[in-house]
Design goal:
The chain contains 20 helices and 15 strands. Strand 2 and strand 3 form a beta hairpin. It is globular, with a radius of gyration of 26 Å. It starts with 12 loop residues before the first helix and ends in a 13-residue tail after the last helix.
């Protein structure tokens, strides 16, 4: 493959303005991420310290191998939604434990007692999908007061999905280890109860379906925490616990010891090509991506800062030029990349569908660099069959079986989101850049459409159109659309797995690709009917 020759002028006014704009966005991202790392009020942290207990993030750090990377997932789930804060009450991510890649999920017991709010249970269930699809052993670091009762009607059914996921992964030989550091009550007791391995910390773990007050109300029996559901009782009498740990450190040691004999996935020894750094710095991405999604940029410039050696081989480079399709290696792993260079026309949609078929034939994972305002509209394009050609691309995306990873690099509007493998098309991972926007259409287009509809309705009714009212409604609608189109709103809704620094995209892709290659995958040549 030939190396791409970048045309980027790093001294140009546009580059410097873009770089400054995206740097400011990253400063905003760091502020929000700092909020997501909040582990509770100082008095609760001091109480944990006094009891010689570790905080959630400290437990994660000790559990992971020294110098292990940690791919934190969904840190902004629930942001601004009125729950317990961004990320809910769990810290979660992927890292190495005793040399094995694992998904680690830790309750933040010093934040609302680790109680499970709506964002937390939604995050739990997305993490379960990631573990199942990528065959990742899961280690739960448990310290939770259970369901947040004021939200129980939104949480009850979703918690059932969490427990179902644990036991179905076990059936598929994907083990779960639970390390119980504190409370695991009511439905939460089923997390260690359904795990393959359970470690309880002496004098700390409290696991029961009903605590002493509820037992008193239900049966009139009087019991204390320890006799009802303490670590020693469960280790010596009930058998719910498999290992009894002296303290937090001993529990983490035992979890690492368990992972020493848990086998790797069958495809753990996949072959890598030589890993080479790009010829162009990924940091330059900040100078490529413009402030407005209306300003185009060449996605090849992004590819050149993600691909090994900045090398990629374009497929159909002279056809369907608004969709770039190329074969490349990222961190030594083969991929097929699809990147937008404008709206999707019929030829670019057909090109994308064929490329996806080829990647399935070659068993090559897909990477989507999504920056799409949608499919081309108008009389000419409808007559040419833009709907049926767009449907071919969506058909190929929906039925493709090789793993796919989507990066939201700019706009994501309408059916373009579907065609470029948005969240509902089940990419293995999806990450957003801080500049990205997602909506049915842009605020300007949407409000304009609504104004046209309003004018037509007024004309048909034979009444004057209220210009002042329409102007005010347009301003309010634009403000609301803009708010709900941001990367942060998307991340709060779990439409992505995290908002990331564009310059770190290669590292994220590398780790995600390693997960999918280790887990192994199949491909397909079966699709729905392609309308010709």
């Amino acid at each position: 493959m030939q190396a791409f020759r970048s045309k980027l002028d790093t001294n140009s006014k546009a580059y410097l303005e873009n770089y400054a704009y995206n740097t400011a966005l990253l400063e905003e991202l760091e502020t929000v991420m700092k909020e997501s790392r909040f582990q509770g009020k100082q008095k609760y942290i001091e109480k944990a310290r006094h009891s010689k207990q570790l905080l959630a993030r400290e437990r994660v750090e000790l559990l992971l191998d020294p110098d292990s990377p940690f791919l934190e997932l969904l840190p902004l789930a629930g942001l601004g939604e009125g729950g317990f804060g961004p990320g809910g009450t769990i810290v979660a991510g992927v890292g190495l434990v005793s040399g094995k890649i694992c998904l680690v999920v830790a309750n933040v017991g010093t934040l609302k007692g680790g109680a499970i709010d709506y964002a937390t249970v939604q995050k739990h269930n997305r993490l379960g999908e990631i573990a199942s699809e990528n065959r990742l052993p899961v280690i739960y670091l448990v310290a939770s007061a259970g369901v947040n009762l004021p939200e129980q009607e939104k949480i009850f059914n979703a918690c059932g999905t969490l427990f179902r996921g644990i036991t179905r992964r076990s059936k598929d030989n994907i083990p779960t280890v639970s390390v119980v550091f504190g409370n695991s009550t009511a439905g939460g007791a089923y997390i260690p109860g359904m795990s393959d391995y359970a470690i309880f910390v002496k004098e700390r773990a409290k696991v029961f379906l009903a605590g002493p007050p509820l037992v008193k109300m239900a049966t009139n029996e009087i019991a204390d925490d320890e006799s009802l559901g303490g670590a020693e009782m469960h280790s010596r009498v009930s058998g719910v616990s498999d290992y009894l740990a002296e303290d937090d450190y001993d529990a983490i040691r035992q979890a690492r010891e368990i992972m020493e004999f848990v086998p790797q996935p069958a495809n753990a020894d996949f072959t890598l090509h030589e890993v080479r750094e790009p010829r162009y710095s990924p940091d330059e991405i900040k100078g490529i991506v413009p402030k407005s999604f209306k300003t185009p940029f060449d996605c090849r410039e992004i590819m050149a800062r993600l691909a090994d050696g900045s090398e990629f081989s374009e497929f159909k480079p002279e056809y369907g030029k608004t969709l770039v399709t190329a074969f490349a290696n990222i961190k030594g792993m083969p991929v097929g990349i699809l990147g937008n260079n404008g709206v999707l026309f019929s030829d670019s949609a057909n090109k994308g569908a064929q490329f996806i078929q080829l990647c399935n034939q070659n068993q090559t994972p897909l990477v989507f660099l999504q920056n799409i305002t949608g499919f081309m509209v108008g009389k000419k394009y409808e007559a040419e069959g833009i709907i049926k050609h767009g449907a071919k691309l969506i058909n190929a995306v929906a039925n493709s079986e090789v793993p796919a990873i989507t990066i939201m690099t700019g706009a994501s509007f309408g059916a373009g989101n579907y065609a470029m493998n948005g969240r509902m098309y089940k990419p293995r991972f999806l990450f957003s850049w801080p500049n990205s926007v997602i909506s049915v259409m842009g605020a300007e287009q949407l409000t304009g459409v609504m104004e046209i509809i309003g004018r037509n309705a007024a004309n048909k009714a034979g009444i004057p159109f209220d210009e002042e009212k329409a102007k005010k409604q347009k301003e309010e609608m634009t403000k609301e659309i803009d708010r709900k189109s941001t990367a942060y709103y998307s991340s709060a809704q779990l439409w992505d797995d995290g908002v990331i620094d564009p310059s770190e995209t290669r590292e994220y892709l590398g780790m995600c690709l390693e997960l999918v290659y280790r887990a192994g995958f199949e491909s397909t040549q079966r699709y729905g009917v392609f309308r010709m």
